[in-house]
Specification:
Blueprint (H helix, E strand, L loop, with lengths): L9 E4 L6 E10 L5 E9 L7 E2 L2 H7 L5 E2 L10 E5 L2 E5 L3 E4 L2 E4 L1 H7 L6 E8 L4 E10 L6 E3 L2 H6 L5 E7 L10
Parallel strand pairs: 4-8, 5-8, 9-11
Antiparallel strand pairs: 1-2, 2-3, 2-6, 6-7, 9-12, 10-11, 10-13
């Protein structure tokens, strides 16, 4: 996509150590042949290509996005990636990232959760108090506490104007349905 021997160049370091938004961008082209230009590439490189799109981007591209944890791309839709020096036709790898929270061991102990557990995120924002459910815990000893939502979710709950954000461990329900 960027020419023979090209390496990603960090433009901005992200909150998680070692991760960055690269200077390089690609165009994403879906089945409707509409172009999402200048989609930022994130580094470092992984073993497989993955494109994470927000729900509305998937609609505009004509891609029925499965909601998946990052890295779980098997059987997902594909797209075309266009860079300044080439084109790649991905047969799979396009997902909508499942909302999740990165936690180290101390965070997991504090909240009483483990990798794969689901939590709730309560956000108080300008008359738009919302609780998002199914925030999956991604536990790893090398990460810092950080919640990942897609832009559609963040905009819908007016996250930019949040006055209070709280992670909640849901209680097990002993409810019965009839």
């Amino acid at each position: 996509l960027f020419g023979k021997g090209a390496q990603l160049e960090p433009q901005k370091w992200l909150y998680q150590d070692g991760y960055y938004a690269a200077k390089q961008t690609v165009a994403v082209i879906g089945p409707r042949r509409r172009i999402l230009p200048e989609v930022r590439v994130l580094g470092p490189c992984r073993n497989a290509s993955q494109v994470e799109l927000a729900f509305t981007d998937g609609i505009s591209q004509g891609i029925d996005l499965p909601v998946r944890i990052s890295g779980d791309v098997k059987g997902s839709p594909g797209c075309v990636l266009m860079g300044p020096h080439g084109v790649v036709d991905l047969t799979e790898g396009v997902i909508r990232a499942m909302r999740h929270v990165h936690m180290g061991p101390a965070d997991c102990a504090h909240y009483g959760v483990k990798n794969g557990d689901a939590m709730h995120l309560r956000v108080v924002s300008r008359g738009c108090t919302t609780t998002l459910e199914d925030v999956v815990v991604r536990a790893d000893p090398t990460v810092k506490l950080e919640i990942h939502l897609d832009t559609d979710e963040g905009n819908a709950i007016d996250l930019d104007h949040a006055s209070h954000v709280e992670l909640i461990k849901p209680h097990a329900c002993a409810c019965q349905t009839h």
